Here is the input.
Amino acid sequence: MSGLKDFLSAIPIGESRSPRRGEHRVRALVFDTYGTVCDFYGPMTRQFERFARERGEECDAHVMTVAWRTAYAMSCFQQAATESEFSPLRQIQRANLEKVMNEHYPAPVSPEELNQLTTVWDRLDPWPDTVEGLHRLKGQAIIAPVSNGNYIDMVNLARYAGLPWDIILGSSVAGMYKPHPDAYLKSIAALNLPPEEVCMVAAHQAELPYAAGHGMQTAFIMRPDEFGGITKPRDPEPGKPYLDAAEIYPEGDWTYITDSFIDLAEQIRQS
Amino acid sequence: MSGLKDFLSAIPIGESRSPRRGEHRVRALVFDTYGTVCDFYGPMTRQFERFARERGEECDAHVMTVAWRTAYAMSCFQQAATESEFSPLRQIQRANLEKVMNEHYPAPVSPEELNQLTTVWDRLDPWPDTVEGLHRLKGQAIIAPVSNGNYIDMVNLARYAGLPWDIILGSSVAGMYKPHPDAYLKSIAALNLPPEEVCMVAAHQAELPYAAGHGMQTAFIMRPDEFGGITKPRDPEPGKPYLDAAEIYPEGDWTYITDSFIDLAEQIRQS
Here is the structure.
């Protein structure tokens, strides 16, 4: 992941810290979506397994899912770091999948099959607390995705998963991928709110310093099943490797820390 | 309204005609909002009446409402025709209200009162068929406002009126007001659909030639109570003046013509 670090080091993190709980009202909540609102690991892994089974072939679906998801993040970080021309996320996903299949799948895959497999990004399952939690949060504030998914990706996913967004913000509003500052700042500007009244919700702790750096409130959602539950254990055994990409336990001074949107709604109600 | 005609003549209408019913699928419906989805006349007129009553003054609330609504349309057309810098609609509304009050209200009004009166754009009532109709249409296609209201205006209105949009498109997506081509074309592009699979829904017939000109399907919704029911009667009496701004009876070859969103859903289902 050293390429990742190089890309990220090129993107400025602001100077602010997360506001403390109760310091400001929460007028809007904006959500990382892939992994935070929906589980990508389960649906993708099951799709790869089914694909191989139907063709009578074998593959390591876990490796393929993690490789595809990592390539997605790397592509977005690279676009953000280089401020290169905005390209549709669907094309990025499709191109990355082709590389993943070439590297990890034992047989040739047709363009039509690649197109079909890519649509799994429209059919990610919400976490068990997601839909009820979003409805509760919507009773308290404006709710919107600030995802690297483009407008149509977020519409398709919301219709599949029943996500009651007030508005779709994020990459398409900004013409730029996270964690480029525009992705946050143009989304906040669309709401005509000061950043300290907007709370960024994410299960990837690496995202929150950017949100805090722009003065936003931050909510870190623990999702231990991110990456299929094989990420960093809370008490790692010495010498045993684990995947650290998702940073799934809280290490920062975030405004809210919880493991469910339902509890987040309750914490905000009480603050 | 000669100024209006001058502005509109500067904005190109495309060459296409509305596709015929059943010629293409309807994958998305995009809606003019002020007047088509929500009634502006009733809430504004009642607000002006209440304002004057509470201050023990008198005003012609009908004239003020029509003047404010007309000034809004003129401002948007002017920005569209001149491609001038995009300015927040809330500021435009506020500035136009100040002029309306100066011209039509018998007493001075404070800046705070002007700010408060301007918020009526967030509290427009849906027409009786709107909410049920939108839910039915959402079962068949993506639904979104393509309004001159900005993102936050549309969020506020949707939350007040219970409008179940999938995504908010229109002026903010385009950085341009209707009927500038960008307002339609960038909204369609956000959905990644061909224009002939997107249907523009409007109660203002003047809007539909632009939508048709870009190849979109068109649905004309008759709203006889637009402008408080004092617009062009179906059989006007010779010599008797009427307000023609809303063009509330069908005169064009639109894909769908109806007087309710519920019936529109049924017509689309059958086509």
About this structure: Strands of chain B lie at 28-31, 38-39, 125-126, 142-147, 169-170, 198-202, 217-221, 256-258. Chain B has a mean pLDDT of 92.
